[in-house]
Amino acid sequence: MSSDIHAQVSVNSPYSRFGLGILNDPGSIRHFSMGGVCTPLLDGSVINFQNPATYSSLTETVFQLTGKGSFNQIGTGDESVTYRGGNLNEVALGFKKLGSPWAIVIGLTPYSTSGYQLERSQAVNDTLSARYRYAGEGGINRLITGVSRSFEWHTDTAKVMTHKLMFGANINYLFGSVEQSRRVIYNNNQLNNTRVTTAIKVADFFFDLGMHYTLPLAVTKENAKAVSGSYLQLGADYSIGTAINTRFSELGESFYYFTSVEITLDTSYIEDGNRGYFSMPSRLSIGGNYLYHARNGGMLSVAADYRSQDWSDLKGSTNIHSITPTVLRKSETLAFGVEYLPEGLEKANRFFSRVTYRAGVRQSTTYLQLGEDAVMQRGISAGISIPLIASRSASRFHFGIELAESGGNSGNLIEESMTTIQVGFTLHPFERWFFQRKYD
User: Fold this and answer.
1) Which CATH number does 2-427 carry?
2) CB 329 within 8 A of CB 312
């Protein structure tokens, strides 16, 4: 049996009930299409929030906007249900003066999302049964301000074999709330139903540090200019663990139904905005990329990325366990991706030669430990970038899709199949903001 439900929230997953919800995958739509690889990748027209060191690789000021839609099929055995949802995924603006080693970026992106509706029935005694209904929604947003600086040096007099080292930092502000409700509904109208509503609100800062190194391996030069070559790119970023301030609220009520409307009878207890904190753990990401630039302006990139964040030792006066009784664990992701551009924009005569093609795979162990099972995710992705020729700039249209599955190795967990689509733009309408005009 299957059914189709239109979700009113941006995500609908039973696994978003736990912790802060489902943590958002890092990186932009370019990295999403490459299996989530982002730490070692540079792009002159795409902002990479995961590694702040990469900001200084921007060639000019850029505006970035992406949206995300998802189709989730959740089931056990022969029964399944399908949810649809979507949201604005990322908006960012990167400021870069032409030729400057500095870059500044501001942006907004989700940090976590929560949305679910679950129900189960249980007999209380021979004549009484109850339905237990669980629902939740909300999420945490991440406001980012970052800066990056690059340094270059050369191994030959023609300055072709250029080494580049970049450093960067993000100041991140987390804000938002995760709200959950639990209901017990009896089959006897003479008994009052109960409802407990909880909310944890987050508002605090944390910091990211990043570095990136580009090593030229073999470069072909003509007239003291590089015409082709291969490079090794190495990246690392570190999110500093910190205590995140929270406010925790809980409300217990009794109610009854009148024509499907919940009518509150009484308030049994209330906790309103108790201040607390939880200790957000540090996160480490490392990655490498082999990059080849062809004589015709084409490009091939083969990259890998590893990320880890240990949530198992979560502490605090108001921690994530306050809203869900579960055990958190160390999350890990291993991702691989490839990117291919047949020809450079200036030399390509055919449309498909101007398009950038991407594909990737990832294997993730999420931060959720349910019983003896860790919640795993596996996904494959692909995408393209199309240059907007009419804009006469480096502006691009991006499209990406990922097919993923969530569950446990033992088969005891709910299986979830997800199809996620991202669509976005990187626009360069401001590339002459910092251009100094000269008049005769």
Assistant:
1) 2.40.160
2) yes
Q: Give the separation between CA 236 and CA 238, rounded to whole angstroms.
A: 7
Specify the pLDDT at position 273: 79
CA distances from 304 to 178, 234, 307, 358 (A): 33, 10, 10, 13
| Secondary structure element (H or E) that encloses residue 30, with its range | helix 29-32
Q: Are 432 and 392 a contacting pair, CB within 8 Å?
A: no
Dihedral, 76, 79, 81, 82 alpha carbons, nearest 10:
90
Q: Which residue positions in the chain have pLDDT lower than 50?
A: 1-8, 391, 433-436, 440
CB 7 within 8 A of CB 334: no
Q: How far is CA 316 from its chain centroid?
A: 25
What pLDDT, on a 0 to 100 scale, did the predictor assign at position 180?
92
For residue 245, give every residue at least 6 positions away whose Cβ sits within 8 Å of its Cβ, in sequence order, or none.
202, 203, 204, 275, 276, 277
Q: What is the enclosing helix (H) or strand (E) of 273? A: strand 261-280
The residues, any chain, with a CB within 8 Å of residue 243's CB and separated by 6 or more, are 204, 277, 278, 279, 280, 316
**Paired tokens of 283:** 């996160």
What pLDDT score does 239 carry?
97
Which pLDDT belongs to residue 87?
86
CB 52 within 8 A of CB 209: yes
- For residue 137, the Cα-to-chain-centroid distance in whole angstroms is 18
Q: What is the pLDDT of residues 182-226, one digit of tens each?
A: 999 999 888 999 999 999 999 999 999 999 999 999 999 888 788
Cα(335)–Cα(378) distance, integer angstroms? 10
3-state secondary structure 386-414: EECHHHCCCCEEEEEEEEEEEECCCCCCC
- The phi and psi torsions of 432 (rounded to 5 degrees) equal -105, 10
For 237, residues 6+ apart whose C-beta sits below 8 A from its C-beta are 39, 50, 51, 52, 53, 208, 209, 210, 211, 284, 285
